[in-house]
Amino acid sequence: MTIELTVRKTCKRHRINTDLLLRRGRWLLRLNKVQDHTLSLLLIDDQEMSGLNAQWRHKPGPTNVLSFPSESATDPGLAGLGLKELGDIVISVDTAAREAEQYHETLHQRLTWLITHGLLHLLGMDHERSEGEAQAMYLREQQLIQQLQHAKDSTMTQLAINVDHVATIRQARGITEPDPVTAAAICELAGAAGIVVHLREDRRHIQDRDVHLLRQTIKTKMNLEMGAAREIIDIALALKPDMVTLVPEKRLELTTEGGLNVSGQKKKLGATIEEMSRAGIPVSLFIDPDSKQIKAARAIGATFVEIHTGRYCDATSEQERDLEFRLIAQAAEEAYDLGLRVNAGHGLDYQTTARIAALDSIEELSIGHAIITRAVFTGLDQAVREMHQIIREASRLG
After folding, report:
1. Mean pLDDT of the chain
2. Is 128 a catalytic site residue?
3. Do the Cβ atoms of 224 and 244 come closer than 8 Å?
4. Which of 15, 165, 233, 296 could join 263 in a cystine, given CB atoms 3.0 to 4.6 angstroms apart?
5. Residue 198 catalytic?
6. Highest-pLDDT range among 11-25, 35-49, 61-75
């Protein structure tokens, strides 16, 4: 299948993920069983769209999308020659951006809907012909969008393992076993793409010696979770992990209990990010799926955000879980639209991970407790491999 995507230079003020749109376009062709056809997709501004409306529809002003079926799609004689061209979908990104704001969507969510709408026109559906056809087209659009929510390309979401709980077991006896450094090596051999450790101020689990040994032995990448405390900042600057994730930290909590209030701590967090940036260390901020926090993270120079998935995992009903999933999906896409890289984690287990792993915008999942718990019964190597397989299945193409 071929999708020819062109983005006019007049659209450069909008950040457009062409890879994402191409993936979704290919999925739509596949879902409509026309994957052997070619499609042209053109993204333009309002001014150019106004010109097309005046030329072809004799109407003033811009619209969101226009569809132009190819001659081979409308002429049986040409179709008999073996030409398989669907035609052209033209979208005004300016109008799409306004509609995205109006409907509380991200730009890419709106563009995806417009591509879906335009494709159905090319396939012969027309909401202007009758009320019945309008309803049929609407229902088909909803069906396709829902299917796309569970679709992802072959680029697999990465799995990073948090080995804090191995250290927690060790510290319970005050001895040297089990060793989180050994655990990290087993996780990497089993397919983990990174190791996460949280060096807390109270040193309740991971110790200074652990992080120094891990920095020397980790073969993938090291993500150091930390609070923005001076002592820990200095350790991170000396250690130079592959990235740090700033998290809220309370002495009495059993585990991290929610995302950072970035908007309320811009000065403090921004200063920490600046120090890390000077040392060449990318910074991620652990935040709730909240637009205000995403915008604040972007404003103070974070490279990543890690979306807190705890409320989704703790939901007690399907309705509540669906709501929390939609918040995570929208937050991840909004963060991407703003130029942030996106990870996610907290509370994910063998039942809740797949749905999050299937989201296009998320690069990596941080999972610890569920895997260490499973390892008690199956062994650590097998526990990591089982989670790795879940994420691979959710990330697969087709």
Report:
1. 90
2. no
3. yes
4. 296
5. yes
6. 35-49
| Residue 106 sits in the same domain as residue 201 | no
Active-site annotation holder among 85, 105, 188, 225: 225
**Same-domain pairing of 53 and 170:** no
Contact assessment for residue 245 and residue 284, using Cβ atoms and an 8 Å cutoff: yes
Whether residues 185 and 71 fall in one domain: no
Query: Could you write out the DSSP letters of every residue in 156-212?
Result: PPEEEEE-HHHHHHHHHHTSS-S-HHHHHHHHHHTT-SEEEEE--TT-SS--HHHHH
* Of the residues 127, 149, 171, the one at which a domain ends: 149
Q: Report the CATH number that the domain containing residue 21 is assigned in CATH.
A: 3.40.390.30
pLDDT greater than 80 at residue 256: no
CATH assignment at residue 367: 3.20.20.70
Express each pLDDT in 298-314 by its tens digit: 999 999 999 999 999 99
Q: In this predicted structure, what is the pLDDT of residue 380?
A: 93
167 plus 303 within the same structural domain: yes
Q: Which residues of 205-223 are buried (b: 16+ CB within 10 A; e: fewer)?
A: bbbeebbebbbeebebbbb
Q: Could you report the per-residue pLDDT of 349-371, keeping only the tens digit for each? A: 999 999 899 887 899 999 999 99
Q: What's the pLDDT score for residue 148?
A: 76
Task: Tell me whether strands 85-92 and 38-44 are parallel, antiparallel or unpaired.
Answer: parallel
Alpha carbons 284 and 206: distance in angstroms, whole number: 20
**Per the structure block, which two tokens stand in for 247?**
């998290």
Cis peptide before 76 (omega within 30 of 0): no
Q: Domain tally for the chain?
A: 2
**274 and 372, same domain (yes or no):** yes
Token pair belonging to 249: 């930290």
Verify that 238 and 385 share a domain, yes or no.
Answer: yes
Q: Are 69 and 193 within one domain?
A: no
Active-site residue (options: 121, 165, 205, 346): 346
Q: At 377, is the pLDDT very low, low, confident or very high (cuts 50, 70, 90)? A: very high
DSSP conformation letters of 206-231 = --HHHHHHHHHH-SS-EEEEE-S-HH
Residues 210 and 231 in one domain: yes
Catalytic residue (one of 198, 205, 308, 388): 198
Domain that holds residue 187: 158-395
Q: Which of 99, 129, 149 is the last residue of a domain?
A: 149
Cα–Cα distance for residue pair 196/214, rounded to 1 Å: 10
CB atoms within 10 A of CB 102: 9
For residue 253, indicate whether it is catalytic.
no
